Amino acid sequence: MNNQEKIAVVTGAAGGFGQQIVLQLLAAGFCVAATDIFEDKLESLQTYVGASEKLGLFGMDVCDLQSIQQAAEKINKLFGDNIYVLVNNAGIYDRTPVLLAEYHDKARKIIDTNLIGTYNCTSFFSKFMVKRKKGRIINIASIAGTWGAAFASAYAASKAGMIAASKSWARELGSYGVCVNAIAPGVCQTKMLDHAEEEERSLSFQKKMLLDYIPVGRFGNPEDVAELVLFLATCKTDYLNGAMLDLDGGLNIGSLESVNLI
To answer: What is the pLDDT of residue 260?
Structure first.
């Protein structure tokens, strides 16, 4: 597939997953519009991936429709409007124990950013794809969206919503040549996880236990996620639509042998 002059919009591009996704898409020949609410971190992204005339950095708040509109205008001015790929990667994590009232505002912010932000960007940028009758929308969900997550119900609910929304949008947009799929990473070693461990010390112990149940014997990393994003962005088939792809090293099936049950 010739990706010259095709534009890929990546939200949350300054984060761990985002950096690798941008790097992979650039290597595949896409013009990449890297967006993030933290504009200072976007500058460090350019250092990470290297200088490229195909990389554009755009401050954008996925919760603010006006911010999305302004970013789109800048993307159009720099690269044109041939937006072919949207990677909804922007997201935040925080503990939200349901018994503690002081976490209500955090819960609302998590759902607004992860779920409503994904809705906002999909609603806006999919119009460019529908116009050309082709496109790929890739939503970065989480295994928490299918398993749940104790003390992080807002995060789990937001990711479950992304999975359900992906299937709904696949039905809505499939006839326009736009495929919508979700990726559900398992436990990945990222700065977000490091921060979560600092907040909840028991996570380190839980991670060690989880390793026994992952058949490949390791946690994921941003490169794993970026490779699957690249596959979905460049595969020729349009028959992969409405899928939720587990990317967890086999955690969802477990490994009986590794825990000495057989």
So the answer is: 43
